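Quick one: co-fold with manganese (II) ion.
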Amino acid sequence: MDDRNQIEVLLGTDGRGMFMAHITIASLLNAAKGDRKIRINLMIDGFDEAMKEAIRGEVAKHPFASVRFIEVAEVLGPYIETLKACMGGCAIGSGALMTWGRCFCDVLLPDVTGRLVYLDTDTYVADDVAKLADAELDGKVFGAVPESTPTSKESWLHRLGLADKCAFYFCAGVMVFDMAEYRRLGGSKKLMEVVEANRDRIFLADQDALNYFAGGNVKSLHPRWNYNDGWVEKQFRFRLDEKDYRGRKPSEMMEAIFAPGVIHYQNKNKPWRFNHRPEGRRYERLMRATGYLKGRYLPGSGFGKELVRSFFDAYHWVLVQVAKLRYAAWSRKAAKETDK
Ligand SMILES: [Mn+2]
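Sure, here it is.
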């Protein structure tokens, strides 16, 4: 295997959120084809040796994978007050500032010069990350999926004053960086200048900052790479022959529903606690496999609740089948139209 072909992945967590990073990493390595080396670059803060050992143990199950730990406190330190001031729209938990680490990847990972895949730790990777790392970027600095945002005057682009400049506002939870391009455009140094200049408007932390920095220089990736499981229920709000639904192609949203590449648990209902979200089961299975769920039930659940959840599972399964049928009907219609 050739090192130049190595896939570089970046995640970040503090000690408290460590199990989430572990599960994202496990899902990613399980879904990888394994014909390319993968290096996990894990930004950490407040990690003890046992936590590192658990992550190393997971990675060691896969001969193609390696991991290195990167302390971020020192790099973020000089900017902490500025960064805190830009988080009005975020819940500040213990690890909230960690997400800023991705902006400093040019400094933190000096040896990464090609592509870098960034993943939030509230994700589950369901397909080979190589496909994401190799996504066509058309010379843009980032690849990312448009965020579901109102298309009206209240849109997030309007909030930031970017509406004339950008075709869409992207979600920074799953990103592909072109590192050479990021450095050429000034990287984290330039990004912090942008943050200083716009700090009254920056509300959603580094996601707003990255949208400012890019200013439209972003390739829109297929939505299956940042799949929100709520779409399976929202599918009836759009017709497949429409060009656009909140910045995305409806037909591609359907493809994401039945073949997600990265599931992003963006809603407030997270899969490590009991709820009725559609894509919780595979997360729960991996929690068991990695040893983070030992009892019979998720926290907050019990026999009766699990029974109700089974009905929701059946309902969600039906919704996925409906999505497949709608998509097949649309494909047939589209094929007929091209024949004419
Ligand atoms: Mn997230």
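If it helps, The chain has two domains: 3-221, 231-339.
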